[in-house]
Amino acid sequence: MKPLKHSVSLVIEGPGGLLLVRRPEGDESLPGAWGLPAATLRPGEGEEDAVRRAGRDKLGVEVRPLRALGEASAERPAYRILMRDWEVEIAAGEPVVPQLGEGTQYECLRWGHAAELVPAARRGSLCARVLLRERGIAPG
Q: I want to staple 62 with a disulfide (CB 3.0 to 4.6 A). Which of 29, 72, 92, 117 is the partner?
């Protein structure tokens, strides 16, 4: 049986819309895709702790988890993935990328709209699919 990769993504709304991040061109799963900031849970780590860590490690901000929005799962070549989107608010700081943390670091960020996640959802992004479903937007 393939190992399970349990991940969380951050849905952050601001005055300019939804916070979107761009993966690097060398990313193994979604090169160059615009999506949501995300992190994989570490052994023994709870989802809310992973959400807070993702805010610090990926964006350089402190976030407050508000509620889980939905989840999706998929089979990947080397693992199974379970992704849960979390609505969060920024408690302190301004998001900046890239950070010096481990894991995927994003090339740039911008504020946009959920519909801009359609291309990533079509390419297999689970966090994009979950948010689009939650917002009633068909991924096409």
A: 92
Query: Can you name the residues that pair with 81 across neighbouring β-strands?
Result: 5, 74
d(CA 45, CA 132): 27
pLDDT computed for residue 1 by the predictor: 84
64 bridge partner residues:
89
User: Burial of 94 by CB count in 10 Å (0-12 exposed, 13-18 middle, 19+ buried)?
Assistant: exposed
**CA 88: distance to chain centroid?**
11
> What pLDDT sits at residue 133?
95
> For 23-107, where are the E strands, in sequence order?
34-35, 38-40, 62-75, 80-92
User: Peptide bond preceding 37: is omega within 30 degrees of 0, i.e. cis?
Assistant: no
Q: What is the largest CA-CA distance in the chain?
A: 44
Ranges of residues in the chain with a pLDDT under 50 are: none
